[in-house]
Amino acid sequence: ALDPQWLPTIDPKTDAMGCMKDVVECVSFKESGAHQWKHDFFPWVEVAHPVLGKREVLQKGSTFEGVLRKEVRALISEHIVLGAALMPGAGFLEAMSSAGAAAMEPPLGQSIDLSGKKRSA
């Protein structure tokens, strides 16, 4: 068990921010060895991208399918080009970037190693 320690939040020799910084550093130091986090993937639910939608992993890649939410449709409907609502080019770039990032992630239910260390078999 740890012995309790008095950590003053007001010190006449130090300004308030300096005193709080000392308290945070002391608490952080005391807690640094308290718990070793195990970074595992928990496949509860896959978060859908607001434009891309749900990801389907195929043998030769991935596809995305979804329905635009009202909020997204409202944003797109404000961008009028030649009298028609058109998704802005930045939206296409963001969607392609997100699709590429998602393609690099493992499918739902497969774990990944976040530690950077090789696992022994």
UniProtKB/TrEMBL annotation:
Residues 49-106 form the Polyketide synthase dehydratase domain. Signal peptide: none annotated. It comes from the Eukaryota. Pfam families: PKS_DH_N. InterPro entries: PKS_DH_N. This is Polyketide synthase dehydratase domain-containing protein. The lineage of its organism: Eukaryota, Sar, Alveolata, Colpodellida, Vitrellaceae.
